[in-house]
Structure formats: C-alpha cells, structure tokens
Design a protein that fits this description.
Length: 174
C-alpha cells in the first residue's frame, strides 16, 4: 500500500469533502431542470430561490457550504415562509398564504425528517438529566444539549424552546 505525502493526503480530503457536498446542490439543479422541462412554474420559482439563497450564503462564507450549512439555509427559508403565511392569514390574503404554504412543502422535500413529539420529549428529558438543569435560567444549556441529541433531524427552534421552558418551569415549581 502506497503512503501519500501530507500535501496529497490533504488534497484527497478536500476532494472527498467536495464530492460529499455536491449531491445536495446537484439534486437541486437536476430538479430545477426537471421543473423547467415539465413547466412547473411554482416548483421552478422555488428551486431558483433555493439555489440563489445557497449561492448567496456560499459567497458570504467565501467557501463551499457543507451539508449542515445548506440545511440551515433551507430551514431559514422555511421559517421565513411560515412567518409570511402567518402575516398573510392575519391580513386576509388567503391566496398568498396558500402560495407560501405550497412553497414550504417544496422546500421541505429537501430537509431531513422532522423530529416527532415523543422524540423531542425524550431529547429534552435526556438534556435536562445531562445538564442537571433545574430552573429556566439553565434553558440555554438544555436547548444546546437537546439540539445535539436531535442532530440530523429538522427541529423547530421555537417549539423546542417553548417545550424546554415549560418543562423547566414545572421542575422548578414542583
């Protein structure tokens, strides 16, 4: 077995990382092309917006995004759309709220499965045990630990925060 010099080993690692990061962007590009061919206007528009958001973040970071950063961008886009749906619904614009909801559904196809209620509760309990938290003042440490346990899953930060706060308030009040 040949041993590569350190510079060649580093080059192999960089190439390997880029190959791992490529499928996500490639999948979006492939789906973008398919949407063009099938003339799906909404899907095409959403995929262009996703591709632009990923490219803008890549330019901002001055390096290619890894998988986690790409998923973070998509989660941000979903969060923005959910806030828009809320605003449009309050403003009586059901047509725009419906469009945003359909956009969310398209973006979510690229996100990993969301953490279920039971899974969220187990992660929170484990995080409270791990951090030995007993009051809402320790909420940050519990959320950080719970997020680490739910790595690879889509987690709504606000829902997690609300659940952790409620659980810690019950602990401190009990």
């Amino acid at each position: 077995m040949a041993v590569l010099p350190p510079s060649a080993q580093a080059a192999c690692v960089i190439v390997h990382v880029r190959i791992l990061a490529m499928p996500f962007v490639d999948r979006i590009q492939k789906d973008l092309t398919a949407a063009m061919k099938s003339k799906e206007e909404l899907r095409l528009s959403v995929l262009r917006m996703v591709k632009a958001a990923l490219k803008n973040k890549e330019i901002e970071k001055i390096r290619p995004l890894d998988e986690a950063e790409s998923l973070q961008v998509l989660q941000t886009l979903v969060k923005q759309r959910k806030e828009s749906v809320e605003q449009f619904t309050r403003g009586g614009r059901a047509d725009l709220a419906d469009k945003e909801t359909r956009e969310i559904a398209i973006i979510e196809t690229y996100l990993p499965a969301a953490a279920g209620e039971a899974e969220l509760d187990r992660a929170i309990e484990a995080a409270i045990t791990e951090t030995a938290a007993s009051s809402p003042k320790q909420m940050g440490a519990v959320i950080k630990s719970a997020r680490a346990q739910l790595a690879g899953k889509t987690v709504d930060g606000k829902a997690l925060s609300d659940r952790v706060r409620a659980r810690l308030e019950r602990l401190s009040g009990a």
